[in-house]
Amino acid sequence: MSRSASGRVPALLHPRLVVPAVAGLLFLALAAAIASGRSFAFDRSLILLFREPGNPAVPLGPAWFQEAVRDMTGLGSFVGLFFMMVGATLGLWICGRRRLAAGLVASVLLAVLVSSGLKIAIARERPDIVAHAALTFTASFPSGHAFLSAAVLLSIAGFVGLASRRDDIALFALLLAATMILLIGLSRIYLGVHWPTDVLGGWCLGVVWSSLATAWAGRRASDLDPA
């Protein structure tokens, strides 16, 4: 990879630009393919990978593990993410970063509207090859749990990093958010309520959303808030 004379990676090749750009293109490709009615063979294969061989009605693992997965998927629900957002918002507000707090709330509320709108517009059917181990009420693409967990948790991590102005805190928040997002998304496939491409599309859109929120609203508010 070429570098500038100072040894730094050129601005256009910085991961903060490349990662959301690639994620955005992948989301658009998936959305276009799914909206046109295309299906993916690996969607079916990956769902069955989490099921007992020869008995797709039963998820892999003992009962306690299945319950743990349902607990994990609950962290990506509206209720779970709501309390995480409220906790982060109040923390930023108490620390005097009120514009950051307001920016976080605005970003999350708009993400919820976008998630609902995309589900209605694309109207993909939920998986029908296994019994659902959790209740569902909306269309399948993109996964609301995957999209909103990525949008909310990555935005929280980004805003906390901006508020702290410490690289170690920003990295810790990012790694914690990424771990939770990964587990929440996989739980949706394990429970049979989403195709893997639903989750992948949700992750991609969440990365784009949180990147824009942090780069625009977050940094602008951070500059205006007192140090």
From TrEMBL:
Pfam families documented for this protein: PAP2
Transmembrane segments: 74-94, 101-123, 143-162, 169-193
Residues of the Phosphatidic acid phosphatase type 2/haloperoxidase domain: 97-214
Entries under InterPro entries matching the protein: PAP2/HPO, PAP2/HPO_sf
Keywords tagged on the record: Membrane, Transmembrane, Transmembrane helix
Top-rank taxon, per record: Bacteria
Keyword hit for Membrane: yes
Annotated protein name in UniProt: Phosphatase PAP2 family protein
Organism listed in the record: Bosea minatitlanensis
